[in-house]
Amino acid sequence: MVRPTVFGLLAAQASARPQAPFLCREADGLILSYEETMRRVEAMTALFNEHDLLPGDRLLVLLPNRLLFPIVYLAALSQGVVVVPVGPEVSSRELSRLIDLALPRALLIDRTLRDTLRPSLSHDRELAAITPPLGEEALLLAVGDHQEAFAGAAEILFTSGTSGAPKAVALTEQQLLFTARQVVQAHALTSEDVCYLPLPLFHINAQVVGVLAALTAGSQLVIAPGFSASRFWPSVRRFKVTWVNAVPPVLAILAQQQAPVRAPAHLRFVRSASAPLPVPVLRAFEAAYQVPVIETYGLTEAASQVSANPLAPEARRVGSVGIGRGVLIKILGERGEELGPGQVGEVAVSGPSVVQSYAQGPERSFLGPWFLTGDLGHLDQDGYLYLTGRKSELINRGGQKVSPREVEEVLLDHPMVVDVAVAGTADPILGEQVTAWVVLAGSAEAKAAETALRRHADRHLSPFKRPASYQFVSALPKGPTGKVQRHLLVVGKLT
Hints:
The protein has helices at 6-16, 34-50, 68-79, 92-102, 173-186, 204-217, 229-238, 248-255, 279-289, 404-412, 446-460, 486-490, and strands spanning 21-25, 31-33, 58-62, 82-85, 106-110, 125-130, 138-142, 155-159, 167-171, 194-197, 220-223, 243-246, 269-272, 293-299, 304-308, 323-324, 328-332, 345-350, 366-367, 370-379, 385-390, 395-397, 400-402, 417-427, 431-440, 469-472. With 495 residues, the chain is an alpha/beta fold. The longest helix is centred in the first third of the chain and has 17 residues, at 34-50.
């Protein structure tokens, strides 16, 4: 049996349904059919050939959420050029570091970013200016030589935690496509579906759950430049969206709208991923719009999706991130022993989509075929996974361990709270104490809010879990996928 390839899938869709819509630009409604996308991908691969980008060469891609990104992405995967997506907000210093790590042959960059990033591109050489009819201009720059590295990879993603050197995750084409198929199966996607994607395209979620899953299903993908509460519902209606690929902050903002609109009947579900979804946010969104939220769990090291809740009529479990999709999940204790249902430990995953090691980075995260995620959680009797926090985020209060997420969910239940993050701060006696950073609703006054929240915590949390101090802020520092950057809270670098 011949294994599917990205180019093979695109060619098959273009042949079977040439005029069916594939990629859509939210801003002006421009749609590329499967046939037109195929032509543009072939033109891009011809450009790569013309400028001597060979299979195995790395191509750093710095593009905002535009139609050009999936065209470049699909062309690179089709050609065997290793794509290295980089967020367009990267600093010149960060880009220099990534160039040193990835050893790219070339860089494809939005034209508007070249001057900003000039210090890291002092030795670049312009190969081509890309000015397609899409009106999205970019430059192809030579930044290195042909070098052997990352054998077998189709894509390299650099991830890092709160500190330390970036870790290089090398994913193969088959791992990417395996996960895309799992997404299609989990969400029962068909050629009739239309996905609305406001998430950053340089992130693995948008690439696999968005671009590759749509390609696999033969469906349509509406690409937004980013999330906008004012554009969201008009776009869902305009493009007859059937499902939304979202993150918790999107749901939280929509749930807080004072006069929620009626969700259209064609919207089947909203998918949440990339960060923990507080149960109060899920319930508030569903109460406002009567649209089910499907919570999922994913990892860059597993080509995105690891688990997902089922769609109706199967049992979805609120508070759970669902069941494994093409991967095995187990919970490990402190000595590496496998724990039973209901016991909290470290989540470990294994399967065809899961990398066996970092291409660059520490090996301590791997135990045989198992990747040790650093996430804490437990499985129930039916295999549904519940996440409780991160090992590195546990607060050690005098020997008693506190999960930030548990405290956050309690505080989010209070009507004065719009957003909250909890972390440990230094304490001379206990080692660490529990501190909460709170975004208040409306015109709530800080002193009255703290009194109310302390009473609320007294009712719902054990004494050692209650915040010792409250910090009231206008916003929490978050990454592009909505994860709170707790280390910035602790050192006082709020954004």
